[in-house]
Design a protein that fits this description.
The protein is α/β, with parallel strands linked by helices and 275 residues long. Helices cover 47% and strands 9% of the residues. The chain has two domains: 152 residues, 3-Layer(aba) Sandwich (Rossmann fold), CATH 3.40.50.300; 103 residues, no CATH class.
Length: 275
Amino acid sequence: METLTIQPPLLGESAAIDGLREFIVAASLGPEPVLLTGPPGSGKTLMAAKIHAIGHRSGTPCCSVEGAALTVDEVESLYRHDPESEGPGGLYIRNVERLAVETAQALRERVVHGHLGPRLLTSSQARLGSPAWRSLDEIGLLACLLRRHHEVPGLQERPEDVPVLCRYQVWLHTLPDSFDERWARFEREELPELMRAHWSGNVAELIERVRLHCGADARAPRRWVGDRGRFTAQEEYVRRCLDEAFEEVRALLEEGELTGGGWILPVVPRPHEQD
């Protein structure tokens, strides 16, 4: 089994993304199993990571495994201990419809009877109602999963998120002093074509396209090497967006269009330069 690692921010300005954020918060508050369905590359793993990261078991690891690879013995081992004191606090099963019958039965038994163990998070690319779900439906596990279900939309259904995702990826792969110039060029030369593209691979495909575009800058990847580097890059991106927003508010205050009494404008700290 793998461990579900820190994931990038959930970016977007569409109503669909707002719905995903609301679902993540609501799902994180309870202990019941979660089912995320949607096309490949649409962000199901990212959502599962967010649900675990803000849930009441966030201080524990979350195991990640393919449905076809999960065994009955592993289920029994995972649900043998109290996750509050030892063991993983979450179990994320990708392609859950591919579970073996015996494994699905073992999971259902533990979920229905409230056995101690990890919070169950699952995902699938299969459409509900398709033959792929027959065995889980007959066993009764599908009914348990559907109590907290969300369909993750593909990128084609939310094209307004494409510029936001592109801007973030360009930022990650560009040194700060050249970001404005690179983004302006990208927005002018690359973004129009990306807005017209058919995203069969969804967000994952878009990210790869932007990374290939940014590969010419050999200095940038060296700055963002490792998990710590990516996290620092994400923080710096958020700080920059906040700083821009604060500047707009300050301008409105100076022009007298806003009153200052109801506003608190914190100083956005600058990250330390990395070696």
